[in-house]
Amino acid sequence: MASIFSRIAAGEIPSWKVAEDDKHYAFLDINPVNRGHVLVIPRKETDYIFDMDEDEYKDLMAFARKVAHAVKAAIPCTKVGMTVIGLDVHHVHVHLVPMNTGADMNFCAPKLTLADEELKEISEKIAKEYDNLYKK
Questions:
Q1: Does residue 93 have an active-site annotation?
Q2: Catalytic residue chosen out of the listed positions 24, 37, 91, 93
Q3: Of 74, 86, 92, 106, which sits most exposed with the smallest number of CB within 10 A?
Q4: Range(s) of the domain holding residue 9
Q5: Domain holding 85: CATH number?
């Protein structure tokens, strides 16, 4: 059975897409730890990031790097933090979180609840920056 992330990437479940290519999909986390929190996934399902083959891993990190540049350009922040946890959904996913302090990466803190209008605005800003940076 396809993971929830595979179903999101396939368009079966709605998401706030910010970028994609033939191997990867990036979308807003709907329970973000900070505004602009993006999940980056490979389209190919693998449960554990270190079980990916080397080329798949490198491709995922290269794509995540591009998305992080777009996040930083779209969301006022000092840096974009990255973490891989992978306990809740058994499909590799990289968290990209705009941050100004280390507390902005606290996954144990209560998550934000954002209105659809704000999620739409954030996703469009990041997508526009991604296109400006990489779709020339």
A1: yes
A2: 93
A3: 106
A4: 4-134
A5: 3.30.428.10
